[in-house]
Amino acid sequence: MADKKVDVLIIGSGHTGGMAAKILTQKGIAVTMLDAGPAIDWEKDRTLRPANQLPYKGFDAPGRHPHIFQASEFSANQWVDEKVIPYNYPAGQQYNWVRVRSLGGRSPYWGRQSFRLSDFEFKCKDHDGFGENWPISLKDLAPYYDRVEEIFQVSGHHDNLPQYPDGNFVEDNSPWSPAMQRFVDAGKKLGVPVTKARSARGRDGMAASLNLLIPDAVATGKLTTITNAIVRKITTDKNSGKVDGVIFIDRHSHREMVLKARVVIVACGTLETTRLLMISELANSSGLLGHHLTDQIYGAGISASVPEARGGKPGVIGGGALIPRFRNLETKTSGFMRGYAVNVSSSPGPMDPRWFPEYGAALDKKLDEYNGSGFTTNIMGETLGHYENHVSLNKAVVDAWGMPTLTISTKYGANEDNMAKDMVDTTAAMAEAAGFEVLVRNYKYNPPGYSIHEQGTARMSDDKKKGVVNAWNQTHDHKNMFISDASVMVCAGWQNPTMTILALAMRASEYLAEEMRKGNV
């Protein structure tokens, strides 16, 4: 394999790696894709067992996934074992890093919320003076958003809100449930928009790289996929300074191999991409690689009861909604910068016992009385990309393949605290105005990383002193290396980043194909 030189080498097979493979192969370019995990046959590799037949009765093995709230014994093999690939953080700065190593990456597991960024995000510095603007605007990315939304079959309603850009939707004109309509009306009186959520419907029960992107690349006959290939280092040509391939390790045998390439696309996910670039000592002439780590705060919100729905009364409750960002748009909000969105949900199912102070027989009685009346709100709040929020290599602790691990140093502060308080107080006031009983006000949000929306450690800028990649996802230091995951994001926004990184990957791949045709790359 050392003698073979491929046209384009993609490291990672998640949403952006899959998009790059689809676009480039359909342009006639031969692509080789490396993934650190195995290919999964969802039918063959899945076994259904009752909890009483499992060693830990459905709970995960102690210490295996201490930071992955989704993990259980039923799904343990989906997630990266922290004993195999550890990471650390300073005392008091917990970070929840959720990782998947299998073909398709995390794409089969995302929540499918599908939003565009607006120019409140793309031109964020113009609005409030913090951070940096993106070198592109919504107008630049809109045509690519259109195409991505078509592929992923995004459902939504056109709302004509500048902070919540409309898109190429499967139109959602479903009626609100009576309880949700009251909440919508309460929002109108308080000047808070309540809209339909936007979600990728996908195909055949999945909206992932595995079923929507990679198969199109395979169909061209131009894609070669190598699984269980752990890239140890991206290499460079000593004469030209260009990247010229990778050294990778077989996950099982630990055998080391070399693969040469004309172009390398790094799509490992924000933190793994950053780790690989740091190990390879590449793309850091700005000194900013690893800095400005951002995500979104999740967890704060309210839990309430709709009185008319108690006892399981049908036809009153059900469905969800979204409150898009409404703070710090045309007027300044005291106490915090940027803004938040809110996921709103109502359920006719059982109530959560944690919402009530009773216990024993009194709790059972309360749960029966309130059954079927649950109503919740949960924050999705933008965090700020401070330089101090960063990652660094820990050479003293290595993973199972001898590679340095990451130390993740990031924390939240007053901006997030005040944002969460505003969200809880606002949605509680809306719920009470709608006639609901607020049972819990939770001002405490989850630790960094919990949203699984880590971004920003190789951010985009036209100025090579202020960023790692240019407006085309091309690294400033190596014109034949591109980065196509959320590490290039300049600010987090409140939105799930998936539609944006897919649109950026599509745009960058078409640019790359044309540059290759011209002989510029």
Shape designation: globular
Instruction: Tell me the fraction of residues in β-strands, as a range.
Output: 15-25%
How much is the radius of gyration in Å? 23 Å
Low-confidence stretches: none
Describe the main β-sheet briefly: 7 strands, mixed
How helix-rich are the residues, as a percent range? 10-25%
Mean pLDDT: 96
Helix and strand content put the structural class at: alpha/beta
Spatial separation of the terminal alpha carbons = 23 Å
**Number of continuous helical runs:** 11
Would you report the number of β strands?
Answer: 19
Please describe what this structure looks like:
- Strands 1, 2, 7, 8, 9, 10 and 19 form a seven-stranded mixed beta sheet that branches.
- 23% of the residues lie in helices and 20% in strands.
- The chain has eleven helices and 19 strands.
- By secondary structure, the protein is an alpha/beta fold.
Based on the model shown, name its key terms.
alpha/beta; 11 helices; 23% helix; 521 residues; six-stranded antiparallel sheet; seven-stranded mixed sheet
Please describe the topology of this protein:
Elements: E1 5-11, H1 15-26, E2 31-34, E3 87-88, H2 119-122, H3 124-128, H4 138-152, E4 154-156, E5 170-171, H5 178-190, E6 199-200, H6 209-212, H7 214-219, E7 223-226, E8 229-236, E9 243-250, E10 256-266, H8 270-280, E11 296-297, E12 301-305, E13 319-323, E14 340-347, H9 360-370, E15 374-382, E16 390-398, E17 404-409, H10 414-433, E18 437-442, E19 481-483, H11 498-518
Parallel strand pairs: 1-2, 1-10, 2-7, 3-17, 4-5, 10-19
Antiparallel strand pairs: 4-6, 8-9, 9-10, 11-15, 12-15, 12-18, 13-14, 14-15, 16-17
